[in-house]
Specification:
219 residues, alpha/beta, Rossmann fold, 40% helix, binds S-adenosylmethionine
Length: 219
């Protein structure tokens, strides 16, 4: 009896059956769920506010964003919040020279993943609220910013800092592309003088999202 009670008070010890069961679930998870999605879910679980999305962007969303960005044929294209690299892949597929692409990603795990997946692209691990420092001299030659940052879920103070950084480095007329899950909303209240050039709802995304293409600082 004493023996039985001692054993039942050790919650960390797992029976062989329990271990077998977990092993099976783990193998099923790994074989059914793609590696990128598993990584995304892992980062999402550790900080949902910073990820701000239930799953990675769809190829359709990424394609539309990339098609808008590659219209700018000079200078660097900066991708903010690279995540698992869906938009990065679309930018390269649209013919962007990897030397012109700089990806900024805050998560160490996702940055490492992006570096492995796109060895020719510059991946900067860091906070977009410190963009000028991260970019250094490259900040002088930016023609477009493609952002997947979750501006609605990040703290307001962070969003304002990101806005100030962009204000400081983007030349007038630079293209700023941002997607949002808020389908009716076009305005960005933290940046002055943005002109919306184009806007499209991408229904083939989970959930559907709207891509807004702005001219920074007016035309
Ligand atoms: C909506 S998810 C990325 C979606 C991405 N297109 C994909 O398909 O994986 C937003 C990304 O922004 C990153 N992020 C959030 N806040 C950031 C910040 N302040 N600076 C840089 N990256 C940030 C998150 O780590 C996350 O990878």
């Amino acid at each position: 009896m004493g023996q039985a009670m001692t054993e039942s008070t050790k919650p960390t010890e797992r029976s062989p059956w329990h271990k077998e069961c977990w092993g099976f679930i783990n193998r099923l998870w790994v074989s059914v769920v793609p590696a990128d999605l598993r990584l995304f879910i892992r980062v999402l679980r550790s900080g949902p506010q910073a990820v701000g999305a239930a799953c990675p962007s769809s190829r359709h969303l990424a394609d539309y964003m990339a098609a808008q960005a590659v219209l700018c044929d000079d200078g660097y294209i900066v991708e903010l919040g690279g995540g698992t690299g869906v938009v990065t892949a679309a930018l390269l597929a649209h013919g962007l020279d990897p030397k012109r692409l700089i990806v900024v990603e805050q998560s160490a795990l996702l940055s490492a993943h992006l570096r492995t997946r796109f060895p020719q692209v510059t991946v900067l691990e860091g906070d977009a609220a410190q963009l000028a420092v991260l970019l250094g001299r490259r900040a002088e030659r930016i023609s477009a910013v493609v952002s997947s940052l979750p501006l609605k879920s990040l703290p307001k103070v962070t969003v304002h800092r990101i806005g100030n950084e962009l204000e400081a480095i983007l030349p007038k007329g630079a293209t700023f592309i941002q997607f949002t899950y808020s389908l009716r909303c076009q305005a960005i209240d933290w940046a002055q003088d943005l002109t919306c050039l184009r806007s499209r709802t991408i229904w083939r995304n989970v959930p559907p999202a709207r891509v807004n293409v702005f001219a920074w600082g007016g035309l």
